[in-house]
Every structure is written in C-alpha cells, then in structure tokens.
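User: Let's play a game. I give you a shape written as tokens, and you guess the letters that built it. Ready? Here's round one.
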C-alpha cells in the first residue's frame, strides 16, 4: 500500500536555552513525531528520511520574491525544536500546518521570522517575532494528517514593507479546483540528495501543474487524499521536501499570488521520486481560518 511521508522540517534536538535558529533542523527528525503516526506509516521512516529531501530540483528565490513566506521554529516540552514554513495572513497571524506546532502536545514557544531570505544570518529585512497563541484545528489527526492546519498569533504585530506582505486567500465564492494551473511552492526545506543534508538556508522555489484529486489518488490511498487536500504534480522530480511543511502552494491570479495549499506531506518514495505532493486545500478551510485569525475573508 502506498502511503505518505511527512514534509515537516526536521526538528533537530536543540536546547531551548541558547538557540541558534538557523541550526534547527526539520520536524520529521523528532522521534515523538513518528510515534504518533499510524504504524503503516511509521515503518517508512527510513525511506521517508532517505537522502532526497526538501524543495528538490528548485532554484533560489530573489530576496523579497516571496514576501508572504515565513520561517517558523517551534519548540516542544522536551526541548526539541523544528523548522517549518508558513505564510503571513495579517500583521497579527501566520498560517501553517498543524503538524508543525502540535506533536503530541502543543509547541511551548517559538519564533516566526518574516522578511527572511537567508535564515542563517540576521538580515536587515528580518522581523523575528515570538509565537503568541497557537490554534490547531480541533479535528487535526496526525495519523493520516487530517485537518493539518494551524494559525499562530504573533506576540507583536508585524510591520509590512516590500519584504513582508500578507498572502491573498481564495474568495469564499471561488469554487475552482485549481487543477491545471501552475502551482508555485517555496520554502527552506532540504534541497539535495545527500544523506543527512540540512535544510536550506535560503528560500528555494519551484513549480509544477496542480493535478486533480482523482489523479492524485492513483499515487496515494483514499484515507490520504480527500476533498480537504490539493495535490501538485511531482513531474521533473520537482517537489516540496522535509522542512517545507506549513509553507505555501500558490497560483498566479490577476497578477497576484493566491495561496491554494499548505504543504503537508510527500509520497513515501521520497521528495524527488516524481510522485505528487499533498497539501491542505485552503479553500476547504476558509471558515476555520477566518474564525482563528483576524483575516477578513473575501466573498
Ligand atoms: C470536527 O468534527 C466534528 C465531528 O465530525 C464536527 O461536528 C465539527 O464541525 C468539526 N469541527 C470543525 C471545526 O470542522
């Protein structure tokens, strides 16, 4: 049976005391992350963590090219921490995947970095803001990553400028499936095939066609791909990878970027295997996003 791999950034073991945010690895590196999964997925840990992980076969972004992209580092009770992506909803809220902030229990604290191109250095454009209240979808299930969505309130408001801008969400009336459109993915996940490679320091991106859910189902099983998901073709080996979790899948719409997905999982054959990658379908969760942030939804 084909199943999923998680896209999470590896969270490495980091002591909460003096943390260099750039050294934090991906969420998928945490033992407790794997323990909560269905055993049918757990056995794939070795495969999933194999060499080929992150925005694979992508290219480096220009600084400011993705002003809605953030890097999120979250820490858990045992002191472990992990890296994910996310997007800016408003000056007060970012959107991410539930699996980035809930691993058996809610993250205890963390930092959202906005205006970031190279997360390994303190760029002038960066705004590093501590996590405020985290909201995880009440029906989030880590077993098959159902309702894999969360918002993080920023402890102080972000300041918008050319490097820090909110993302557009689909209007409530927008009933497009987005299949056939070009989807753009971005993030700090792994980019190389080298075993044990770290997440990328800089924002990487790539693109591929968005595919229909029925086409996506042929690569996964039906507990994994549901109406709440949207999939991106894996052609050319172009994909999100570990470390990219929680980050955006966007389309160009009226010359603006529209977020249609949140990076959630990859195929267990690996990031660069040519299989589709799976996202939370943003339009399925608009009401929840509206209720768990201060974003004003468009009708
Ligand atoms: C969670 O699931 C329950 C039971 O299916 C449902 O009644 C409820 O509306 C769901 N909550 C959300 C926020 O979707």
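Assistant: Ready! My guess for every position:
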């Amino acid at each position: 049976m084909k199943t999923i791999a998680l896209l999470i950034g590896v969270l490495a073991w980091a002591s909460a005391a003096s943390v260099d945010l750039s050294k934090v690895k991906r969420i998928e590196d945490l033992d407790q992350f794997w323990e909560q999964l269905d055993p049918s997925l757990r056995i794939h840990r070795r495969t999933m963590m194999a060499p080929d992980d992150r925005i694979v076969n992508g290219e480096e972004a220009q600084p400011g090219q993705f002003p809605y992209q953030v890097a999120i580092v979250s820490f858990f009770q045992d002191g472990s921490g992990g890296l994910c992506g996310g997007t800016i909803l408003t000056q007060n809220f970012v959107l991410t995947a539930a699996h980035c902030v809930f691993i058996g229990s809610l993250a205890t604290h963390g930092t959202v970095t906005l205006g970031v191109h190279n997360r390994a250095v303190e760029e002038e454009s960066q705004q590093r803001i501590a996590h405020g209240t985290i909201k995880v979808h009440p029906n989030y299930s880590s077993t098959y990553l159902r309702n894999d969505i969360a918002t993080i309130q920023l402890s102080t408001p972000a300041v918008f400028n050319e490097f820090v801008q909110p993302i557009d969400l689909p209007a409530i009336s927008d009933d497009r499936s987005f299949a056939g459109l070009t989807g753009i993915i971005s993030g700090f996940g792994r980019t190389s095939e080298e075993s044990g490679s770290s997440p990328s320091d800089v924002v990487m991106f790539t693109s591929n066609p968005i595919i229909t859910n029925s086409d996506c189902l042929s690569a996964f099983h039906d507990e994994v791909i549901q109406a709440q998901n949207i999939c991106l073709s894996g052609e050319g080996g172009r994909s999100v990878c570990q470390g990219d979790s929680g980050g955006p899948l966007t389309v160009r719409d009226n010359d603006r970027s529209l977020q249609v997905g949140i990076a959630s999982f990859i195929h267990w054959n690996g990031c660069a295997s040519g299989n589709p990658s799976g996202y939370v379908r943003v339009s399925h969760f608009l009401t929840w996003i509206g209720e768990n942030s201060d974003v004003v939804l468009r009708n």
